[in-house]
Amino acid sequence: MKKENSNNLIVKDLCKSFTDFTLDHVSFQVPKGRIVGFIGENGAGKSTTINLILNELKKDSGEIQIFGQPHSSPAIKEDIGVVFDECTFHDIFTAENIEKILSGVYHSWDSSLYHEYLKRFRLPSGKPVGSFSKGMKMKLSIICALAHRPKLLILDEATTGLDPVVRDEILDLFLEFIQDEEHSVFFSSHITSDIQKIADYVILIHRGKIIFEEQKDELVYRYGIVRCTKEQFASLSPEEYIIHRATNVSTECLVRDKEDIKRRHRDLIVDSATLEDIMLFYVKGGTLCED
């Protein structure tokens, strides 16, 4: 990715052990002006990683830097916006009540921006949150995270359970957020289509380990899936595929350069691979080709 001084978040060799799960030497970066998608199956370690970044859990070892400072530094809290998959505001509060609370918490609270977002997303300021739909609650959570003008937005499954129209509105907001090239979004989600739409980089975590950290365009436009017979698979060299899985009658291979494979093997069927396809190859298992 980019040099360290151009990253809003750097994670190095992060470890955390529980009775039945271990986060194992997780390392990645979130550059300024970029959206980084963090994907993996439920239980892969996404939420654990985020809670460690936010200092909600204590790491066993490793390093976390936000804006070049330790993640535990009180000085950085004002510049981080956080949204989880559930609205954390009490049902009896209104948007007006919430603003009174948060404007006292954040010195950088921007009341005019908050009300601009309320109007844009058609959220009533005087109705209790308990009367809001799930989509309205999530919009409110994101608006509140943005209204104190953070530099880094951290999202943990923030679009889960929302209808496609609401998700599109929210994704557009994230794209707007990074336009100044200083802000960043770290976006954990198992909805890979959302990540594929807006992310610049994608990190896949599986069973507590980082599988890859790649540019999204590299993954979507170059990776492919070869579908072939066992006899055709035998014609492929190990360097030509990343991972393969076999059934009783056929074999599927994930390849890093689909156009190159098409040129080399004109008899093979080579399809494009979505982010979900790529993730499932690793998560569901197969035989990994060792470099």
Features of this protein?
about 290 residues; alpha/beta; 15 strands; Rossmann fold; five-stranded antiparallel beta sheet
Describe this structure in words.
- With 291 residues, the protein is α/β, with parallel strands linked by helices.
- It folds into two domains: 4-216, P-loop containing nucleotide triphosphate hydrolases (Rossmann fold, 3-Layer(aba) Sandwich), CATH 3.40.50; 223-288.
- The chain has ten helices and 15 strands.
- The protein has helices at residues 46-53, 95-105, 111-120, 134-146, 164-177, 192-198, 216-222, 230-233, 258-264, 275-284, and strands at residues 7-17, 22-31, 35-39, 61-66, 69-70, 80-83, 152-156, 184-188, 201-206, 209-215, 224-228, 243-246, 251-255, 269-272, 287-288.
- Strands 6-7-8-3-9-10 form a six-stranded mixed sheet, sandwiched between helices.
- The longest helix has 14 residues, at 164-177.
- The protein is elongated, with a radius of gyration of 21 Å.
Could you give the topology of this structure?
Blueprint: E1 7-17, E2 22-31, E3 35-39, H1 46-53, E4 61-66, E5 69-70, E6 80-83, H2 95-105, H3 111-120, H4 134-146, E7 152-156, H5 164-177, E8 184-188, H6 192-198, E9 201-206, E10 209-215, H7 216-222, E11 224-228, H8 230-233, E12 243-246, E13 251-255, H9 258-264, E14 269-272, H10 275-284, E15 287-288
Parallel strand pairs: 3-8, 3-9, 6-7, 7-8
Antiparallel strand pairs: 1-2, 1-4, 4-5, 9-10, 11-13, 11-14, 12-13, 12-15
